[in-house]
Design brief:
- The complex is a heterodimer.
- Chain A is of the alpha/beta class.
- Chain A has one domain: Glutaredoxin.
- Chain A has five helices and seven strands; from the N terminus they run H-E-E-E-H-E-H-E-H-E-E-H.
- In chain A, the strands form two sheets. In chain A, strands 5-4-3-6-7 form a five-stranded mixed sheet.
- Chain B has three domains: 165 residues, no CATH class; 247 residues, no CATH class; 105 residues, Sandwich (Tick-borne Encephalitis virus Glycoprotein, domain 1), CATH 2.60.98.
- In chain B, the strands form two sheets. In chain B, strands 2, 3, 4, 5, 6 and 7 form a six-stranded antiparallel sheet that branches. In chain B, strands 1-10-9-8 form a four-stranded antiparallel sheet.
- In chain B, a hairpin with a 2-residue loop joins strand 4 and strand 5.
- Classes of the chains: A alpha/beta, B alpha+beta.
């Protein structure tokens, strides 16, 4: 019995190692989305700043746009936020903000505080649309083309590098297509 | 040439580390004095070699040698010299080299300060540290070589991450690593004790000052990191329960438990196997922290350099070191034995409660940090666990811990009487209750949480004061000075560290309870009142730094019409990375901070028009870090205690113990 008790720490550690091992093979940043190259899942969601108005996927057809998933409780979102604000100022591409599993007043206060880079903000309070879009964690950013196909997905906070090397070239290419 | 010399020194260091890890271990097993004697010079040689390698890397950074890949990635010719030097440990490779440097430094310190240790114990301790070093040196040389050349050389380097270009960030990693790596000493002592089968009060007395030192450095390191986040990230928060913060906090929690359980082992000979287990866990969590930060299994604000292949290496290393130690523990801890018994109400029980609460708190932080990873591994989706979880779990665990902190030092060993405790502490309790109920009214607003937080802090202060007064009154020496001198440095250190906790709680409570945050749009000339202060915006002017350009705002801050300070927050764009950065302007005071940070220009007129601005009034916020510094200071004072420097009599006893 005593011997078993002394083995307990080792057993707990062994389980931990298994999880860490599996965790390693699933880098949170490089999960390929099965949705890439597929039509963006339909949504019809209320707008954060005007809850009586709605936005649906079909209204975005004909232009290239980004969907940025964020929440006021998400720390990493604050890291990428200055980049989004900067991007919005260039007006290269419209960014739709999906306020994910958040409270409306908190979300609005957050945008006032850190700047609002979004052409339109929509509310996914229960995370249903997040599931349709295969959102793993917040923040995530999707690139959607003119025909409404998801062409790229960035997991985790945006970086200058990711924007300049991947996302913006892709956006330009899709806009000219 | 210089980088190659550094690389070569690292390879030599690896060979020395292997010798240091293997030969003395065999020597200790066979009682071969010649083999055991290798440990000390090997530790010194390894330290010198790694220090030389570190110097080579620092030299490459100082001379901005862009033919070294690491320098090209993390420095820039415009970057000022002090940040170029700090960039030496601003990258993954460099910070690992710093880690090894500290490890060898600690081993050298142990070898110098432990001339009185039994030869076999010292040989085993240094051998264990040598083996840990082997792992890290292999990791450096095979997956993260800092001396890789870039051919052809880059004409100009990328810059150091602007977030790290800051005085706080220059000293934060070394302090944190001093703490992380310092736990390797307690770890090595534990492994040596398990191997030798001898674990007694003397052993605890030897490992105590090392553990206290590591813990104090870790406290400073964490405090610096939190302070940096407060003023540099521009959000006005000081703790975010981010995975990387948690990674440094978990060893601290276990280290705190270890400090207290070592006290019991030293004074009463109890908690032995538990102490050993805590020492193993504290260092394991330091290693786990490195794994989490460096492998990229968790997304974090701090994920500056991550690489999954490195993660595999660290995980294997973790499995060997921690798995090996825990196996050894399972096999040998039974032989170490328990110790003297104690009554349900006694200082032992109170310290046991302290240990249980700290371990549970650490487990809950670990669970919260790894929960997203667990769910993902089980294919249950990916989630983030945020501050609400940690606040909900952590505070209820800490409140009883802090309450017991007032009782523990007053209770006697082995058996304490409740009526006696009540007599000794009732005044402290009364003072704490009454003051905490009334004080919030004086501060402006009463709420149960504020009163509760203040109660905990005041209780610790009052109970500690009661302890000091009673101790002084009872001591037989004539005169106050003699009475004061009669107490040990360890005792004063404990008092100071406990008061540090109280100061910390006051800071947290008051800043949470009374902070004011305002997000404003201000046009030049406009005045806004926030709290008791009037802020007048005087527009922005362009600024040009060595490696950035941007705007500095001028905000006049008045109280009762009198100008107190002109605050100059900045908005910078760094040339090399194009990264925007907010430099908050903070007017720091004993009773709180006034904090202004610049958002974005919002009007058509660009930077000459209106700006979004954040103005915070943060009462008592600096007490948070002040409390941490007091804790660390208490640790350093406790370390100097006379009894850690063995007297001749003990030395003979130690030698006799080794011979037996």
């Amino acid at each position: 019995m005593k011997a078993l008790r002394l083995l307990l720490p080792l057993a707990v550690f062994a389980i931990l190692v298994v999880f860490l091992w599996v965790g390693l093979s699933r880098d949170p940043r490089e999960v390929p989305s099965p949705l890439i190259g597929k039509p963006a899942p339909e949504f019809r969601l209320p707008q954060l700043h005007a809850m009586d108005k709605q936005l649906s996927t079909s209204e975005m057809k004909g232009q290239v746009w980004l969907l940025n998933v964020w929440a006021s409780w998400c720390v990493s979102c604050r890291i990428e936020h200055p980049l989004l604000v900067e991007l919005a100022r260039t007006k290269v591409v419209p960014v739709i903000g999906l306020n994910y599993k958040d409270k409306n007043d908190l979300g609005i206060a957050w945008l006032q505080r850190y700047g609002d880079p979004y052409s339109i903000s929509i509310v996914d309070a229960d995370g249903r649309v997040g599931i349709d879009w295969g959102v793993y964690g917040v923040p995530e950013t999707f690139v959607v083309d003119k025909s409404g196909m998801i062409r790229y997905k960035h997991i985790g906070p945006l970086t200058t590098e990711a924007l300049e090397r991947k996302i913006l070239p892709l956006v330009r290419e899709l806009q000219n297509a | 040439m210089i980088p190659e010399l550094g690389h070569f020194a690292l390879i030599l260091a690896l060979l020395v580390a292997i010798a240091q890890g293997v030969l003395p271990m065999i020597g200790a097993q066979r009682r071969d004095a010649a083999l055991m004697a290798i440990a000390r010079p090997a530790a010194h040689a390894q330290f010198l070699l790694v220090a030389f390698a570190f110097g080579c890397l620092a030299w490459s950074f100082a001379t901005a040698d862009f033919s070294v890949e690491l320098v090209a990635q993390h420095a820039n010719s415009q970057l000022p010299l002090h940040y170029r030097l700090a960039a030496t440990w601003g990258s993954h490779e460099g910070s690992l080299l710093l880690w090894v440097l500290m490890l060898t430094g600690w081993a050298t310190a142990v070898s110098l300060r432990s001339r009185n240790l039994p030869a076999a114990l010292l040989a085993r301790v240094l051998a264990v540290m040598g083996l840990v070093s082997v792992g890290f040196l292999l990791f450096l040389l095979f997956t993260s070589n800092p001396f890789l050349r870039l051919i052809p050389a880059a004409p100009e380097g990328r810059d150091l991450n602007p977030l790290l270009q800051d005085p706080g960030m220059v000293i934060h990693p070394p302090m944190l690593y001093m703490g992380y790596v310092g736990f390797s000493v307690a770890f090595a002592f534990s492994i040596a004790a398990l191997l030798g089968g001898k674990l007694d009060a003397t052993w605890a007395r030897w490992s105590r000052p090392w553990t206290t030192a590591a813990w104090s450095f870790l406290s400073i390191g964490i405090a610096l990191g939190s302070w940096w986040a407060y003023y540099e990230l521009g959000w006005g928060g000081w703790w975010f329960w981010d995975p990387v913060e948690n990674a440094s906090f978990m060893p601290w929690l276990i280290g705190t438990a270890l400090l207290h359980s070592l006290a019991v082992t030293e004074k009463r000979g109890t908690f032995k196997s538990w102490t050993v287990l805590l020492a193993i866990i504290a260092f394991s969590l330091s290693l786990l922290g490195t794994f989490l930060v460096r492998s990229g299994v968790l997304t974090s604000v701090h994920a500056f350099a991550t690489d999954p292949t490195r993660g595999v290496f660290i995980l294997v290393f973790l499995a060997i070191v921690i798995g090996g130690s825990l196996t050894l523990y399972a096999v040998r801890a039974g032989a170490v034995g328990g110790g003297a018994g104690f009554a349900p109400v006694s200082r032992e029980s109170l310290l046991l409660a302290n240990n249980v609460l700290l371990v549970v708190a650490c487990a809950s932080v670990l669970l919260g940090t790894l929960y997203p990873l667990f769910l993902d591994a089980l294919n249950l989706g990916k989630i983030s666990v945020g501050p609400p979880y940690f606040d909900a779990v952590f505070v209820p665990l800490m409140a009883p811990l802090v309450f017991l902190m007032g009782v523990g030092p007053v209770a006697s060993w082995r058996r304490a009487e409740l009526p006696d405790l009540w007599t000794r502490l009732r005044w402290a309790l009364a003072v704490a209750v009454v003051t905490s109920l009334l004080l919030p009214f004086a501060l402006g607003r009463w709420s149960p949480l504020i009163a509760f937080g203040l109660f905990l802090a005041l209780w610790v202060i009052a109970a500690t004061a009661a302890l000091v007064i009673q101790r002084l009154r009872q001591s037989p020496q004539p005169g106050l000075f003699a009475k004061l001198a009669a107490n040990s440095a360890a005792w004063y250190g404990m008092i100071l560290a406990h008061l540090g906790i109280a100061v910390f709680i006051i800071g947290v409570t008051l800043v949470k309870g009374y902070e004011i945050e305002q997000n404003l749009t201000m046009t030049p000339g406009q005045t806004v009142r926030v709290g008791d202060y009037d802020f007048t915006f005087r527009g922005v002017t362009p600024v040009n730094g060595p490696n950035y350009s941007g705007f500095a705002g001028a905000i006049e801050m008045r109280r009762d019409g009198k100008l107190r300070e002109v605050l100059r927050p900045e908005k910078r764009i760094y040339n090399a990375s194009g990264m925007p950065m907010t430099e908050a302007a903070i007017d720091t005071g004993f009773f709180g901070d006034r904090y202004v940070s610049l958002g974005e220009p919002v009007s058509e007129k660009g930077h000459e028009g209106a700006w979004v601005m954040r103005v915070y009034i943060k009462p008592f916020v600096d007490w948070i870090w002040g409390g941490c510094l007091l804790m660390a200071l208490g640790g350093f004072i406790a370390m100097t205690d006379r009894r850690y420097r063995l007297k001749v009599k003990d030395r003979i006893a130690a030698m006799a113990g080794a011979a037996a």
